[in-house]
Amino acid sequence: MLNPDLNSLELTTTEYERYNKHLILPQIQIEGQKRLKMAKVLCIGAGGLASSILTYLVSSGIGLIGIIDYDVIELSNLPRQTVYTPKDIGFPKVNCAKQNLSIINSDCKIHIYNDKLNIDCTDNFAIRLLINDICYLLGKTLVFGAVIGFQAQVAIFNYQSSSNYRDLYSIERLNFTSQLGSCNSGGEFFN
């Protein structure tokens, strides 16, 4: 994505009209707008901050946006979460966000995820902690898996208020464990 092939991508006549103010900016121009069209963004959470960010991302011409949230819209959300309307109350945020954002820009593809279960298959402790923290804060169950050599680990965290990944590994322990190796240094059989 850092150096996409922009030659094969064309802007439509409608896109030239829609983004004409972007195209005259020296920092964007046609190449920058093509990069926006090719961009993929994942937004975790669809609350107050995400409401504004998603609106601007869709308006700017981002090509694909993924939205993750499991919450439903309440009346108390509406003053801050401006992507929603009173008719959305009681419905899942991701569904309403997709519908309302598609009205703003139907050219933007939007994928929504409102699952309660997440599976972590990463090979990086910092990312694992981040995924854990997000799942913990959102009250989502996390299935964790790791492989090094011929050994594998599987665990379930945050299930019905059970322990989370941080309860298992402190930062100090992770720093020590990371010195033991990863699948990059120790190899892997299962992947």
TrEMBL record:
Keywords recorded for this protein, A-Z: Membrane, Transmembrane, Transmembrane helix
Pfam families membership: ThiF
GO-annotated cellular components: cytosol
Gene3D superfamilies: NAD(P)-binding Rossmann-like Domain
Every THIF-type NAD/FAD binding fold domain range: 19-175
A single MF term (Gene Ontology): ubiquitin-like modifier activating enzyme activity
Domain of life: Eukaryota
Residue intervals passing through the bilayer: 41-68
Protein name as it appears in the record: [pt] molybdopterin biosynthesis protein MoeB
